[in-house]
């Protein structure tokens, strides 16, 4: 493996380029018309245009990405997260083209990408799962009321083909189930090309806790501890931390063991995340899904373990026999990540595209890491995720990490568009957050105080 094509954009493309450079790999960036001259294209050794601004005409075009690899002589592809990162067809096309795919096998992506099938695999591996239903293909809702009664309310209608937060809808009452299921099927068909949905019990007083795993593809895997990701809006994460402030040592041990068991059962290769919902009252935990890619919040794990997850991905893909043993992985201190977005919390967190007329990020502060893919003068366009940067604070304990994060957020300056920095500062400084009362209802419960 000598030259890496990064099939992505923004901050994750920049992050991968830095890891590749540290390993002596040449890098190729790809870009749409909207990203011509973007930060990731400037950092890479080469940059190739792959199409117009819309993702469907550029970052989601497998043929264009493979053509860019051929044109530049790239012999490996890293998908980052989002776009085609969990598309087994893309992974398979890369492998069939004779290139190295930096990620799990296409078979693992396919197996874990179907949420209903992933539930079955988790259950077979002895991982606790929430009550759920059969799959309902688009246009087929026969028996859904009976399925809802069996699963129990409140419940989630979930798109089987993926989608994270945008693929889920909460239903509190039986009378609403059919209408919500029809709407979710239509959304899933338009967004993912698969209108299949299923039902799953919804835990209202819950924490969202995920375990970072790393598999070697031979039936062995390790965990790199957990991250709590309960601070969300629209089921999408905005603050993550490790360790979780809300689970016991016994729960942590059982959850990490379950995650490793599932990763080993599917002979997982590379970095992946197994997500759980934790009942905050009983400490019971249940499998949600597996993300077969690097996560947005991976720097939290890197901060507390001292490991370079992207570097490990690249080294494993290159054929290196990694000497990574569970007993050698230690957790040190506490880390918190905040996602700085161009969005308006007062307007239902709607994206706020525009030009970054002024951008000051807290780089160079002790215990602070900043990952970004934009610079002052760049545009946040309506075509892609409106993330400006990720700010990661690491301290000796949670209080120290909170203090560092608040100091870092106070340094942020964004002009030219609306950003969520004040909202993040109010969240981190809120008494309930400081006390570790960080369930998934946190934002809704404290919205008036957080939006200001």
Automatic annotation (TrEMBL):
Q: Could you tell me which residue ranges the ATP-grasp domain spans?
A: 119-318
Indicate the segments forming the Biotin carboxylation domain, all copies: 1-448
PROSITE patterns recorded: ATP_GRASP (PS50975), BC (PS50979), CPSASE_1 (PS00866), CPSASE_2 (PS00867)
Q: What is this protein called?
A: 3-methylcrotonyl-CoA carboxylase alpha subunit
Give the UniProt keywords, A-Z. ATP-binding, Biotin, Ligase, Nucleotide-binding
Which Enzyme Commission numbers does its entry carry?
Answer: 6.4.1.4
Gene3D superfamilies reported for this sequence: ATP-grasp fold, B domain
Enzyme class, one word? ligase
**Top-level taxonomic group:** Bacteria
Give this protein's Gene Ontology molecular function annotations: methylcrotonoyl-CoA carboxylase activity
Q: Which organism is it from?
A: Inquilinus ginsengisoli
Q: Which Pfam families match?
A: Biotin_carb_C, Biotin_carb_N, CPSase_L_D2
Q: Which residues form a coiled coil?
A: none
């Amino acid at each position: 493996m000598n030259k890496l094509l990064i099939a992505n954009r923004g901050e994750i493309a920049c992050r991968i380029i830095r890891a590749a450079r540290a390993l002596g790999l040449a890098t190729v960036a790809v870009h749409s018309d909207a990203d011509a001259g973007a930060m990731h294209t400037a950092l890479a050794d080469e940059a190739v245009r792959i199409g117009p601004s819309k993702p469907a005409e550029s970052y989601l075009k497998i043929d264009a990405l493979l053509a860019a690899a051929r044109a530049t002589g790239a012999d490996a592809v890293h998908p980052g997260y989002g776009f085609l990162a969990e598309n087994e067809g893309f992974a398979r096309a890369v492998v069939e083209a004779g290139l190295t795919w930096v990620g799990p096998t296409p078979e693992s992506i396919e197996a874990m990408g179907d949420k209903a099938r992933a539930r079955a695999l988790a259950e077979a591996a002895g991982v606790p799962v929430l009550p759920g239903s059969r799959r309902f293909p688009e246009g087929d809702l026969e028996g859904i009321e009976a399925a809802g009664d069996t699963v129990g309310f409140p419940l989630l209608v979930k798109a089987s083909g993926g989608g994270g937060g945008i693929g889920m809808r909460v239903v509190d009452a039986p009378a609403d189930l059919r209408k919500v299921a029809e709407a979710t099927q239509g959304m899933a068909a338009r967004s993912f090309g698969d209108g299949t949905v299923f039902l799953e019990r919804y835990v209202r007083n819950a924490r969202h806790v995920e375990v970072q795993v790393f598999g070697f593809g031979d039936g062995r895997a390790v965990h790199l501890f957990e991250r709590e990701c309960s601070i969300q809006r629209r089921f999408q994460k905005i603050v993550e931390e490790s360790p979780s402030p809300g689970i016991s040592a016994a729960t942590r041990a059982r959850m990490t063991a379950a995650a490793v068991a599932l990763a080993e059962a599917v002979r997982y290769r590379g970095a992946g995340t197994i997500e759980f919902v934790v009942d905050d009252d009983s400490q019971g935990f249940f499998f949600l899904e597996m993300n077969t890619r690097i996560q947005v919040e991976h720097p939290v794990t890197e901060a507390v373990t001292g490991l370079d997850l992207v570097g490990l991905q690249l080294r494993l893909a290159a054929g290196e026999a990694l000497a990574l043993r569970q007993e050698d992985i230690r957790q040190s201190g506490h880390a918190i990540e905040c996602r700085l977005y161009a969005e308006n919390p007062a307007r239902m967190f709607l994206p706020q595209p525009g030009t970054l007329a002024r951008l000051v990020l807290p780089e160079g502060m002790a215990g602070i890491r900043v990952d970004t893919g934009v610079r002052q003068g760049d545009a946040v366009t309506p075509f892609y995720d409106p993330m400006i940067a990720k700010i990661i604070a690491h301290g000796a304990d949670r209080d120290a990490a909170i203090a560092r994060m608040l100091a870092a957020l106070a340094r942020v300056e964004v002009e030219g568009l609306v950003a969520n920095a004040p909202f993040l500062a109010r969240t981190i400084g809120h008494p309930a957050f400081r006390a570790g009362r960080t369930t998934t209802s946190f934002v809704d419960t404290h919205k008036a105080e957080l939006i200001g």
